Amino acid sequence: MPVTDPQVQPYVGLRPYRRDESALFHGRGREAQEVATLWQAAGLTVLYGASGVGKTSLLHAGVLPLLDSEPADVLPVARIAPRMSKPATRGGNPYVRALLSCWTDRQDLGDLTIAEFLDDRPEQMDRYGDPVPILAAIDQAEEIFHGSPILEKERRVFLDQLAEAVKKHPGLHVLLALREEYLFLVLPHERRIGQGSRSRFHLEALSPEQALQVVHGPLPQTGRTMTPEAAELLIDDLREVHFENEAGETTTIKVDTVEPIQLQVVCSALWESLPPEVVEITEEHALLYAQVEEFLSAFYRRTMAEVAAEHGLPASKLRLWMRKTFITEHGTRNAVYEGLIETEGMPNAIPRALEDHHLLRAEQRLGIRWYELTHDRLIAPVTRYEAPESYLKEARQAVEERDWDHAHHLADLAERAADVDEAWVRAEAAEVFASVAHARGDLGSARRYCVEAAGIFLEYQRFDGVARALTKEGLLWLGQNDPVQAIQRIKTALDYAPNDASVQIALAKALQRSSTPKAAETIINGLPSDLAQQAWITLHEPD
User: Which pTM does this prediction carry?
Assistant: First the structure.
C-alpha cells in the first residue's frame, strides 16, 4: 500500500485500538502480559486507571491477542449498561440481559441467569481432556456501579448472579475494567465475585521509553520511518508543562510520563499534516508540522465545540467556564467538586461529558466527586485565546511571501481552531488553499476551492467574499485560455460587488484576452486615474 494512501493510519487518535489493530498497538507489552496472566489465574481481576490511559485499547489490542495461543474459552468483551440491551430480549434483569446479549445472539434469554447461561454452553476441553478456563471481561464496568438509582435493586441482583456464576463455575474468571475513581465502589464486591481469588492491576501513563515504542512501532506497517530525533522531540514536547500566572510569569517543568491519549492526538495530527511525498519523518518535519500546542489546542476546541453542540451551549461560553473553573490565578490546575445539580454553575451533565471526552478526570473524595484537567499539558490550550482570524491573517501573509507550504499549514490550523458554527473560516481558508493549489499547478483543485468559498460566503451574505472568490475562479479560467468562462464568472462577481475596482480590472483583462479590447478600454477609462494607470499595467501581466 503506498504511503500516500489516506487509508494508512498508524495512529488511532482519540478512539481506542480495536482487536484487529493489534499490529499497530505498541508500548504496552509488559502490561498486556501481566493482565493476561492475572486474568487466567484469579477469579476476579480489576483493571483500573485514569480516563484516557488506554484500558480499552490494552484489553482489546494487547491482552486478547495473547490469549489466542492459550487454552481458554474467551467470551466476547461486554459492556454493561441497561440501555444497550436488545429490544427483542426484553424481560428479566436489565444488567443480566445486557451482559448475555454481548455474549450471544440468542433471542430467548428471558429470565435466564448468568449461571444458567453458562450451564447451557458446551464445555471446552484442552488436549488432555481437562476443561479450559472461561474468561469474561466487562469493559467500562463503572457503568454498573454508578447507574440510575431506580435500578439499584436490579444492580444488586446482577452482582449476586455474577458471584453465584463464579461459585458454580470455578473455571469462570471475570475481569472488570473501570476508571480508577470508581475503584472504591468495587471493593465491597471483590471477595464474593472472586470467591477469595482476586487481583488488581493499575494501568498508568506511558514512560518515555514506552512512548517511543508507541511512536515507532506502527510505522513498518506504512512504509514510512521516523528518525529517533523526531520521535524524541514529540515526546519531550509533550512532557514539558508551562505554567503562567496572572502576572505573566512562566514556569516550565518536565513530567516523568506521557498521557497516551495526548500522544495519539499529536501523532495522528502529525501524520495527517505531512505531505504525501515524505517517506522519512525527520526532526525538521516534526518541528514544522508537529506543532504540539496547536494540535492540543485544536483537540481542545473541537471537543468543546462537540460538547457545547450536544448540550445546546455556545462554545465560547463553555470555553470561558473551563478557564475560570479549572485554572487557578497562578496558572495551575484547579479542582472543583460536583454539586447536587450543578458544578460551578454548569449542569453536571457538562463536566461528565468532558470526562468522557478525556478533558477532565474525576475522583471520589469522602463520597464527593471532584473534577480537574486530565493533565497539566492541557493548561495552555484552556488558557489560550488564539482565534482562527490570527491564523488566517498569517496564512494570507505567507501567500504574499509565496511560502506555499506554510500558507497551507496555517489555513489548516485556522480550520482546526474554528468552532463548528464558524463556516466562514472554511471559506477564507479555501481561498488560501486555492492560491496554494494554483501555485502548485493544480488548477482543477484551485477552482473547486474558489467555488466552495463563494458558496459559503453567499450563505453568510458576505458579498465581498463571493466576488473575491468568483474573480479568482475567473482568472484561473483565463490562465487556462478560456476567456468565455472567465468573463462569465467575473461578470457574476461584479453583480455582488459592482464598485470593486479589482473585479472591474479582472473583467477588463478577460475582455482584452477575448479579443474585445474596446470593451476592456471602456471599463478602465471609467476608473479613477490612479487606478486606471495601474490597471493598464495589470492588463499586460501574465496570469
Answer: 0.60
